[in-house]
Amino acid sequence: MDPDLHIAELRSRLESITDERTVEWGSVQYMLGLAIAEHPAAGERSYRESIRHYAKALRVFDADRFAEPRARVYTSLGVAERALGMGVIAKERFEQALALLGDSASGPDAGAAANNLGLVYEELGDAARAVDAFRSAIARFATAGADRQQASARHNLARVLAALGDHDGAMRELRAAITLTSPEGDGPLWASHVHELATHLLLSANVSTDHTEAIRLLRESLTVFTSAHHPFQYAMAKHNLGLAHAAMSGGDEPHHARASLACFEDALAIFDPRLHAPQWRESHSGLEAMLERLEAAGLGRDRHGHFAHLLTEVDSESRHALLAERLGRLWTLAEPARTAQIESFDRALVAVEGSSQELLTREWLRVLTERRFDEADEALAIRTASIASLDEAQRTLATLGIERALGDLEILIRMQVRERLERFGYLRPDGVS
């Protein structure tokens, strides 16, 4: 339901209740406070208003008759007070909630109070008590079968353990959190556990460690953290993926350096130097370091060229995803950079030699069949011009790559693409009918 509509309905319902001593009146006061506090645009005024509604609910829910509802209100009250920077008072609210529920109480309410108590202790600098509170929350959630909430508490515990230097303990908690969630049902929450585990693997590893697991985990997190839906998390995952590949790029083989470079490029496409200055600087520094490493290896600094060669080094699924994402981003650029960048990128693709040329052309055509006609036409026109600029031997290789790639397309699509290519001046190589 739309949050503004939900709040309006609760206000209307509250106005219709004449007796302020009823459980219904207290319940609606609580629900209204919660709806206001959880509104996506909630700020200081919202939290203060929610506190007033919680205070009214407490007048109805006395400790003797309504221990559980009163504890629930105390927890929500503490959350609002914590958001306002009133940590000490919020701590007392969570302790009051737990006292009402009992030391051995389990369930979402008891778990939530203990988890929030841990967050307050963490903010107040009492790491030992934060650890105890999070472990208490985990136990209470586990008894009640509240897997998603238990996973969040484990994530919180992992953060405190890491701050205490216990990275192994932090990783154990994160691995447990991952098993309690799924990408299908808990998308962003699951991805945050996966990403955090990968980060700890990078932080705890020494220079000789194989970062294959961290790379796998970061790629898994990117199945949820897409640039369209979670841009900042996407950029952070790409940045850390760049760091992981960079750590493995010390040998003569350039794959990891190229992969790292591509990841830093992806991160920088999202990070705004005004809003994300530290992250932008770190990614830019990583990008420059990889360019210098590749240049020192005699491979130059052509970023499009390195990306084109990276495409030949990965599996088919990764090749398609990487190429589709890169072309998609170039198409969103503003002119005059847009056309210039697409042309430069296309020249890099056709400059790849040998059998890899056919491989890239086949994937390039597959991507074009998924795009709008105007974008595909633009790419086909640019490809025709790129081929025309090559010397005879390279031109023959590039056109043969197109012919073979066209042969993989369904016949009607093949005919449409060929007709459009020829409209832009494409000429079949001699001997090809």
Global mean pLDDT: 92
Low-confidence stretches: none
Largest sheet: none
By DSSP (H or I, 4+ residues per run), the number of helices equals 21
Radius of gyration: 29 Å
Basic shape: elongated
Terminal CA distance reads 60 Å
Topology order in helix (H) and strand (E) letters = HHHHHHHHHHHHHHHHHHHHH
Class from helix and strand fractions: mainly alpha
Percent in helix = over 70%
Number of strands: 0
Relative strand content? under 5%
Description:
With 433 residues, this protein is mainly alpha-helical. 75% of the residues lie in helices and 0% in strands. The protein has helices at residues 3-15, 23-37, 44-60, 67-83, 87-101, 108-123, 127-144, 147-163, 167-180, 183-204, 212-221, 231-247, 255-268, 277-296, 303-313, 316-331, 337-350, 355-368, 373-388, 392-406, 411-423. The protein is elongated, with a radius of gyration of 29 Å.
Features of this protein?
433 residues; mainly alpha; 21 helices
Q: Would you summarize the structure shown here?
A:
It contains 21 helices and no strands. Helix 4 (67-83) runs parallel beside helix 6, helix 12 runs antiparallel to helix 13 and helix 16 crosses helix 18. Helix content is 75%, strand content 0%.
Strand-helix topology:
Layout: H1 3-15, H2 23-37, H3 44-60, H4 67-83, H5 87-101, H6 108-123, H7 127-144, H8 147-163, H9 167-180, H10 183-204, H11 212-221, H12 231-247, H13 255-268, H14 277-296, H15 303-313, H16 316-331, H17 337-350, H18 355-368, H19 373-388, H20 392-406, H21 411-423
